[in-house]
Amino acid sequence: MAERLIYLPLGGAGEIGMNAYVYGYGEPGRERLIVIDLGVTFGDMDTAPGIDLIMADVAWLEDNRDRIEAIFITHGHEDHVGALGLLWGKIQKPIHCRRFTGALARLKMEEMGQPVEHIHIHAPRPEVVSAGPFQVQFVPVSHSIPESSALIIDTPAGRIVHTGDFKLDGTPVVGEPFDPITWHEIAKEGQGVQVLTCDSTNIFSPNPGRSEAVLANPLLDFVMSQRQLVVATTFASNIARLRTLAEAGVAAGRKICLLGRAMRRMVTVGIETGVLDRFPPVVSPEEAADLPRDKVMLVVTGSQGERRAASAQLSRGRYLGIELKEGDSFLFSSRTIPGNERGVIRIQNQLSEMGVDLFDADDGMYHVSGHANRPDIQAVHDLLKPRMVIPMHGEHMHLREHMKLAEARGIPSMVVTNGTMVEISGAAPRVVDHIDTGRLYLDGTALIGAMDGIVRDRIRMALNGHAMVSIIIDEDDNPLPDAWVELSGLPERGRAGVPLAGNIESELAEFLERADDRTVMNDDRLEEAVRKIARQVSMEEIGKKPEVTVIISRLAAE
Amino acid sequence: MAERLIYLPLGGAGEIGMNAYVYGYGEPGRERLIVIDLGVTFGDMDTAPGIDLIMADVAWLEDNRDRIEAIFITHGHEDHVGALGLLWGKIQKPIHCRRFTGALARLKMEEMGQPVEHIHIHAPRPEVVSAGPFQVQFVPVSHSIPESSALIIDTPAGRIVHTGDFKLDGTPVVGEPFDPITWHEIAKEGQGVQVLTCDSTNIFSPNPGRSEAVLANPLLDFVMSQRQLVVATTFASNIARLRTLAEAGVAAGRKICLLGRAMRRMVTVGIETGVLDRFPPVVSPEEAADLPRDKVMLVVTGSQGERRAASAQLSRGRYLGIELKEGDSFLFSSRTIPGNERGVIRIQNQLSEMGVDLFDADDGMYHVSGHANRPDIQAVHDLLKPRMVIPMHGEHMHLREHMKLAEARGIPSMVVTNGTMVEISGAAPRVVDHIDTGRLYLDGTALIGAMDGIVRDRIRMALNGHAMVSIIIDEDDNPLPDAWVELSGLPERGRAGVPLAGNIESELAEFLERADDRTVMNDDRLEEAVRKIARQVSMEEIGKKPEVTVIISRLAAE
């Protein structure tokens, strides 16, 4: 059978987060595979309470492990590398990335006790990494973290450009600028670009993106005009922003103090790997606490309202000896990711109660995005002249809008969501298979399936409360009349004004007294009858039906 | 003791939602009281899973019921009238409002089986409602619902202007325009305005607000340019918007179909009370389903992503015989309230998967706010020349910013949050008391306290899962060795690969065998020991500690 080139997203296509993409080349069903990125996304109370991390279900990769050549990581953001340590054990293939990304990947592997010697560090293009039928180059692009890279993937069926996350920034402050000359070359070499797989995050942003460099002066003006303690928060991995903030603070005569483990780690990794230079000296929280308030600037984690990050800690009171006060200033040099608003507002209100003056990104004055906007995406289409465009890294509506943009300009395109395998060696993308895919949840230390019912049960208990009923059947197969009911997350008293648990117990006692042997002898039947009574009584008393767990204990004859 | 005028917010001050304000006049501790608005706010999974409605705890009003003269309702939004039926039984005083608001208040009372004859309908100023020492007038203001009213509250200590929710709209399409002449009179009468208690919602919006009327042409252009079925969603109570949308549809040659109970009810109430005229005829969903797609426009509920509203239903597939398809258009003529983003994005993605083209408010092209912006608020300060300004209806940061605005212009002001009683008869607000206040939750049909621990238990079960342990102690006070463990919302298997429940049971069996009488005979001690073991085993196996409920059954000697 003829060889073909395939593309299969397992995560990140139809959502923003947990990126995991697969390319394959070879005979159908026997393609050799490479994996691009293994990222995480974060749970929320609505859909995944108690879940620490969410990642793509890689069962298909596990089943086809002998076909996988390698894993490539485009950059060090959590949604691209965060699942590496958790999922590597299921794949166990070499990991290729650049130095800074490699340092972060190493931490992810170490955290999970995985062998770090499988991480291979590469220089950018022109270095080529061979992985079976794939020849891969890392091409520097600008983004909100250093060393973000697009991948040039050359295959016998043509060249793929996989952009990773990128923006068009000629002056990214830290890290490498977007270089149109290189991209022009990439488009012209050989047969040109067969497939452009392209970041879609900002497809709805109508104006050209702005450079990181434009923030320096506004941020300096901002810090200069504050009279007391200044706090600024942004993503820990946005090292360019960290330096811009720190330099503004120093220029305004302040000492810089970094709060938050992730932020200190990023700066350390940045310095160690050489991507970050000229970072001003910092002081410890203890030193900062002893300095006059107008001589300090804190740069802190928690711009998304994360409960355990430094911003949240400061909003709750004294933290590491530092306490915010009336007249202090707190800048969110960030954008609130949709879904995180509640957490951010909670913190802002608490800061406001302390008398702290709040400042947000102010329509882009103090923040720029790390992703290409619509005109930038269009410019990349123009520059690369691909034979087809596959939109990636976006909610379904982003992918669809990106597809429409490509098609309007005569480039074949398709919305390819997680689990859809498309052949991309032809003139246009063509669906060839659907893979069962889904999400894995990290719950404590356990990896569970999103569809296992565990999280569903948690959501139901949270919405409906939980009633537990203990029934004892004696040695002669007679139920003891006093069923015991414990309620968790349910009103103590109902409409009747008497305790709800007691009310259910009475109904159950009555039922157990007259229950026939057929019911009593059958666990399922008995459980179902008991559950029904507990739910009915609750419905009458408090207007809702709780989750019910019935424990039946049968005493053995001695 | 000298009489004084007091202000006490019980809800709505330090949050947006569940408005409930109290004014009092008289000797300290014996003031006669009026209540302004009794609204609700909605729960979310993060803070109140399973809770249907949230409202102010009115225990203080209940304790001081004999001092209350009346309840006034400014307008018919849920956050102002939604708790009336639920809380009226605790207050039992006359309710005063205007006609349209009264029709909605009546529905709220009826739903809860409360007597509607306590609702008194009034004409706007110059009609005066007497309530003890208070002389109250309803003054029409523009807002996103008809008949929104500010209250002029004349007292022996001077005039209060309580704005309610308002914007400065001279052409509100439906309902009454904001009339600066009236406001000028109000400021000049008698001793002028002692206190302005003022909406703070949009204090951070720097530009003057825009009129509802500006939307007519863009909405018409929008509908005209669509080729297939058009769906538009907005707040059901925004009757002006409903008519503008419907008129755009009719002008574009389409039949209008309203989907969603709340929306049909609002239009009916609007027509019945005379505030809504010229609403185009509508067709039923069945008729709509039979018409060509380009001849129909649906106007539907669910702009905030509510799971049971029409938008969500349509995003899940066929609803009332109508199914959205490739090429249909869906307009959100609304702003997503912070915190609702996840629900809205979920619907938008599902619509996108159906091939539906999505349109949002597009920077205000298809939506205007119902609240006064910063320059409008400033204009009202100028117009009324109050001796003091009390910011209300806002998160803490809104109230604080509003206070700063007033103070910068030389008007005494203060951030007064829920539960703070201030004297407002002097030259500036002065705190005189703090009232224990909080939130009541409607859970099914039960009203529970936010701090009762019920919701806390639900959140804990959702985050940590729930393990139930049943222990039986026999007639001779010996524990039966086979403890039974049921898990809910927890991984089945842990690190060891064996069932977690079985693992806990083994540990418990071992413990029960060697447990001393002192532990076995004491329920609390035994429960604590069992809980500790269950949590320890879970921590080792799955890296997290579940909530544990222990049921101990002691068999009676026969």
TrEMBL record, chains A, B:
<dbReference type="Pfam" id="PF17770">
    <property type="entry name" value="RNase_J_C"/>
</dbReference>
<keyword id="KW-0540">Nuclease</keyword>
<keyword id="KW-0479">Metal-binding</keyword>
<dbReference type="InterPro" id="IPR036866">
    <property type="entry name" value="RibonucZ/Hydroxyglut_hydro"/>
</dbReference>
<keyword id="KW-0862">Zinc</keyword>
<dbReference type="Pfam" id="PF22505">
    <property type="entry name" value="RNase_J_b_CASP"/>
</dbReference>
<keyword id="KW-0269">Exonuclease</keyword>
<protein>
    <submittedName>
        <fullName>Ribonuclease J</fullName>
        <ecNumber>3.1.-.-</ecNumber>
    </submittedName>
</protein>
<dbReference type="Pfam" id="PF07521">
    <property type="entry name" value="RMMBL"/>
</dbReference>
<keyword id="KW-0378">Hydrolase</keyword>
<dbReference type="InterPro" id="IPR055132">
    <property type="entry name" value="RNase_J_b_CASP"/>
</dbReference>
<keyword id="KW-0694">RNA-binding</keyword>
<dbReference type="InterPro" id="IPR041636">
    <property type="entry name" value="RNase_J_C"/>
</dbReference>
<dbReference type="GO" id="GO:0016787">
    <property type="term" value="F:hydrolase activity"/>
</dbReference>
<dbReference type="Pfam" id="PF00753">
    <property type="entry name" value="Lactamase_B"/>
</dbReference>
<dbReference type="InterPro" id="IPR001279">
    <property type="entry name" value="Metallo-B-lactamas"/>
</dbReference>
<dbReference type="InterPro" id="IPR011108">
    <property type="entry name" value="RMMBL"/>
</dbReference>
<feature type="domain" description="Metallo-beta-lactamase">
    <location>
        <begin position="17"/>
        <end position="210"/>
    </location>
</feature>
<dbReference type="InterPro" id="IPR042173">
    <property type="entry name" value="RNase_J_2"/>
</dbReference>
